[in-house]
Batch of 4 targets.
Target 1
Amino acid sequence: MFSEEIAQYSWNETTQRILSKTEADVVNALSKSQCDIDDFMALISPAAAPYLEQMALLSRKYTQERFGKVISMYIPLYITNSCTNHCVYCGFNHNNPMPRTILKPDEIEQECLAIKRLAPFENLLIVTGENPRDAGVDYLEKALQTARPHFNNLSIEVMPLKSEDYYRLTRSGLNGVVCFQETYNRDRYKVYHPRGMKSNYEWRLNGYDRMGQAGVHKIGMGVLIGLEDWRTDVTFMAMHLLYLRKHYWQTRYSVNFPRLRPSAGGFPPNVVMSDRELAQLTFAFRIFDHDIDISVSTREAPHFRDHIATLGATSMSAGSKTEPGGYHTYPQALEQFSVSDERTPAEVADAIRQIGYEVVWKDWDKIFD
């Protein structure tokens, strides 16, 4: 399990290694066709800031070589905001005194139909709070079975599950799993997740192993930018990715770097990442891993998303509602966070086409299941 491997590394020592990188280290990393973790640290370090344009060109080159000039579109469907966790930064925090919603199968069906009226989405991400008693594996299985006739590609972003549960859900149409570790800083993890099943650092961290063991087709990774030093967090995520690729080489992988957005509870970020730094991280990850799917959600502003679409991103959400029932059933339900890009899917697609890229609504077919 990865928890055993990560125990070999010190958070503080890793931070110092990143900050000690020089311009010579950056130049050396940019000269390589394949970078190692040391090169990645150089590319995200402050020393790489003067090389942003060179990194952008290299990132664009690798992205177009592997993916062409296309952006894959997806949309999230929140089916419950009921949650037993007490995450201090999240709108779904159990302590927030707001009505909770668990969509029934017929309501999920109506949400699916409403999404299909928005745009020809085929990639659906089903999202829940973490409530294993009232919205556990049986509930998730039914949700997948309800959504499957409407979408060719189904992913979930839910509580970490047992390996056998992931396998069970693949039998009901599951293609991918997205899970955010939030932060790899074990000593600080409990500060942000004081109670609930999410407070178990090892269970969440080793969930990716359980996904790989279950043969999940695609695994999505991410840290929440704003909790701890972002450079150290993404370095541990890059180490984690290398580990997963070695052990579960038949699985596809994606990464996302969400920046903390306003939510109920008003938790202020401890670390603020600028647009230039987010661009630097995107370029660094593409140079580090040419084949990784880099996703950019509606947390980010339109101008940033439009520019990064040509420089490293490969998938984007559009028209997102972060409250259960937001597309049709309960438009005033408690949302997880506020979005920044409020354009319609058609407006986002048009912006992508205007920069010379093709919009792809479908990149997976049921026949492959």
Target 2
Amino acid sequence: MTAAATVAAHAESWPIARPFRIARGAKTVADVVVATVRGGGFAGRGECVAYRRYGECAEGVAEAIRGYRGPLDRAALRDALPPGAARNALDCALWDLEAKRASKPAWQLAGVPRPTGVATAYTIGLDTPGAMGERAAAESHRPLLKLKLGGAEIDGDLERLRAVRRNAPGARLIVDANEGWEMAALERFVPVAVDANVRLIEQPLPEAADAALADARLPIPIAADESARGDVNMAEIATRYQVVNIKLDKTGGLTQALALAREARALGLGVMVGCMVCTSLAVAPALLLAHFAEVVDLDGPLLLARDRTPRLPYENQCVSFDSAVWG
């Protein structure tokens, strides 16, 4: 990258179609940060979402990007910034810039097949059993539904699961508790989940308590989400989980995410690729991980009241890459 390259960042708020709630709280807008790197007559962009779970906020992330004075190089970026949203936006902007300068799509630069017709999960936010059942009925045409659970009482989560299954009898189900349970709750939940044919449970226990999973012998695969952040020890993850959910805002960008996906596969871990509630600009780079993944959860733009223009094509419950959006 030339010395004349410049970095800019700004925050944006995108309305969510309906209030989106998980175990840690609810939101009605998606606050994102867009980084832009300009150099050699081209501009690359990357979008990130600040993780409140890790003490980030949108304006703080934007300030970190604007204040970055290190090398504008993807390899150097890993050492210059900690993993997180700011590094993700800059890393993805550099991928976008490199693709434009080389006149090659980012998927070719990454050495993966073009992501086309990738089936994605659709998320039903945490709500009352009745409300989640109604949403499941409305989305029952989708092949894969993801349920946000982790309510105050496990009995409520069991009712939520039963309501969704009644109203979407043909859908495959995955469950995400967002660290909302203790081991006793998980043990109560699993038999009901087996009966409901749940395929995967994400992050049932808090990160600080997930060592208990090392001794568990559960009939449903468990995925690491909050426990798989930054320069995660993938070998340790493999002693507690069967699947790892890789999100660019946690890994600090596509560069690290690709390396972690390859490492996970080498260790025999299943790979899931996920996203925050975001626009197509954030999902496009994450799509490059679909090549490694058994489960793809890239429905962020579908949860918004509107997406940015241009946007990724979502058709027949599938999403495809489009270099007009990114890369």
Target 3
Amino acid sequence: MGQVLIRNLDDEVIAKLKIKAELAGKSFEQSLRDLLAAAAPLTPEEKVAISRRLREGQPPNLPEVTKADIREGLE
């Protein structure tokens, strides 16, 4: 499993998160893992953005071929 180090967190934020963890009967570390896991799933909008980003890196579609082009190629 990976590790993450988050710097420059406000002490007040940390204190509030510790209280929330205690009220939930969890360790501070487990509470943070749960918060991050809940925030991790991608929204539909994010999935579309990823798809668009991937498509931008692909070569453009082939030019459209008409029936006349096909007939010409058969002659």
Target 4
Amino acid sequence: MENIALEVKNVGRTFADGTVALQDVTFSIRQGEFAVIAGSNGSGKSVLMSLIAGLDEPSSGSITLHDCQAGLVFQEADAQILGETPEEDIAFGAKNCDLSKQQVAERVNFALSETGLTHKRSAYARMLSGGEKRRLAVAGILAMSRSLIIFDEPFANLDWPGVQQVCAIMKQLKEEGKTVLVLTHELEKVLALADRFMVLDKGQLVFDGTPADGLKENLEAWGIRNPLLACRSIEEMVWL
């Protein structure tokens, strides 16, 4: 389908104990679109993320990626680190992409440069700051040529500089035409970058539209704090 990167059709996910995590969720994401999916804890955001990333399978419905592959930036950045240094960590995924040694080296150098981590290439990866660890996760995704990048609660446990670093790399990805999907309840930190805004509540997609229209909804009814309580306009809703 032209210009469509991701299609989610009538997706449901029910666990073995009978818990219904998602119910009949349908939407599509265009190539190069920056979409924010909000929802309170237990809304189904992380379950949806796992399904899109291929870490789990839906109980019903279908998820289709068109001419792209998804890369995931986990909420817990340390869980994603597999190498001793950023250079080794980035190379880990690239080596599994059937590339030559030279191609892996080129991909690693490119990813380090893109994420501003070249000067940290030989540092101890687990001693990086929270923001740097999330940038490292993005670098690994870029090295594997993933064009759909999913951020799961990207601001969790980050201080102000860390949030700024993550927002900066998100803004850069948007400008480079990457397809970005951000799952978060902290709208005030990222909504200014969004082309699209969706809300999950109790496993159902209850809103899908523009950020401006979404802010007119009663977000508190879905367990989300409306960022207009702290910001005067959508343009202010990014921590850069």
